[in-house]
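Researcher: Hi, I'm a grad student and pretty new to this. My advisor asked me to get structures for two proteins we've been looking at. I'm not sure of the right format, so I'll just paste the first sequence and hope you can take it from there.
Model: That works fine. Here's the first sequence with its structure tokens right after it:
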Amino acid sequence: MRSEEKRRKNSPSTLAGWFYLLTPYSLLLTLFISGCAKQPPLHHEQSFVFGTMVEVTIYGEPEARAKELASKVLADFDYLHRTLHAWEPGTLSRMNAVFAQSPARAAIQPGMVPIIRDATRLSEMSGGLFNPAIGKLIALWGFQSDEFTPRRPDPKEIEALVAADPRMTDIVIDGIQFYSKNPAVKVDLGGYGKGYALDLAAEYLRSQGVKGALINIGGNIMAIGSRGGEAWRVGIQHPRKPGAIAALELHDGEAIGTSGDYQRYFMLDGKRYCHIIDPRTGYPAQGVEAVTVLIPKGSLAGTLSDVASKPAFIAGVKGWRAAAQAMGVADVMLIDERGEIHLTPSMKKRLEFQEKGLTLHEVP
């Protein structure tokens, strides 16, 4: 873990600030859980991983065993974070260095093969709106950094990178070697890694016989089992106000994920620029404050909860429904720049809104 991350993790005052700023879901999650009195053992651990606050909550296990299991999950998260980091030294950054020297080849770490192939599959499914290969565009806007400095990149540089059209399909895995057909490829798995980690953690905890757990990685949340027969209850952060805009019960194996413009962004000349870049234009997506997707139980529910919100966010008010359908997602909510809510009927049935007077647009 980087020294700066250690400092944030160990400083109570700094932790509180990042806890609110980066992971509003976490606050809501803690509130909902703490409201349940006189329950069997409920073990809760936090750490700063993937550039956000991570929480593991385990229900019904003896304290020592729950602590051991949670610590293992958090250690695995830290390893995965270092492996998949797009710009600091690690497996993915070394791969990116090879991509930049196209058509240079190198041996691929076996564990990266299913990740690259799955990310490529999901990118193709999204019609390229989810595109981890645009890391150079993300870096150009300053979002491959721990601090975000307001900047307006040279339009010619943006145009050049968009014209280079880096895609995940440019990556070739040939036996034990890999290379890129396009030197503009720089993979950034920031919209994939947290969901992938959820799936791995859930698989591990289930293999250890855990009957109830909730894993939260910066607002990407997965439920395992229940809390003593009761569904886990979580909140969806309001993109412009403290607290939840809605709450819902999360059942066994379900995962929920939100992409918003309120966590990683900067303001410039009164305009908000967020980290979600539209691959078609090279500019941060506009017109949307947040998109939340609810994914049913499945082997890749966590991964899809991380990935599927991005195409809908980029597609915007006019295209979000088609983008969600392309990803096979039925339960979706979009909050536009005016604070109006667009959602599917099935998602509406699951949500309990926390304030009155909201404008809802139900879209079949």
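Researcher: Oh nice, that was easy. Here's the second one.
Model: And its structure:
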Amino acid sequence: MINRRSGRISKLVIGMALGACLAAARPAAAQSTIFNIPTTDTVSKGKGYAEFDYLVQLPAPDAGQFQIFAPRAVVGVTPQLEVGVNLAVTHVSDGGGNTTVFQPNAKYKFFADDDQGLAAAAGIIGYMPNNDGDNFGQIYANVSKKTKSGTRLTGGIYGALSCDYCDGASNKMGAILGLEQPINAKVSFVADWLSGKNFWGYFTPGVSVVLPHSGLLNIGYSIGNDSFKNNDLKNRALFVYYGITFP
């Protein structure tokens, strides 16, 4: 990949590719991620989930606009455990080339109290770039509270494992926050945020729409935590995904 704009564009592009696929999947009844943050849900035992994510940098920079194509797959191993793989392929225009990041992942829901609307989970994600540095990973833990109205709040922490892409020790750990607010039976307002000025550090608001045949459509806009401080990079992107649960 061509390294543009004083070395920052390469890190930005691979960062979006990595950050776009923080966790594995979303069952039709309850999401396993919102956009970027993992939720406390896991895919049901014996079920599978397939998804395709698309991100495009908007507004486009003067040169080197990126697009990310990210298929995902996940299966429920036990009622509490899901495992999956993501493959994020980033294309950079104007001769910037392509980068592929393979991401195996697993999540375990270690606590659930449906009567109180409480749950807690922990997980690990691996990142294996094909041509941009060494392998590394992320660990996380989070808790959620769902109210009787259907609103769910999620909070947690994450930490980097051998992360060459994190700028300084202060950006190797961070906070996870999420909101899911039903508007009606089919549509919800959703938003998530990961702290830190690193490739995980994005705020993404949007809408989530339940579709027929166990389908789900999310449309949002990812804004880098350093987006406006370094506006020449235009670290922002339209984020669209479609997923389906089977069988």
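Researcher: Is there anything I should tell my advisor about the second?
Model: You could mention this: The chain has a mean pLDDT of 86.
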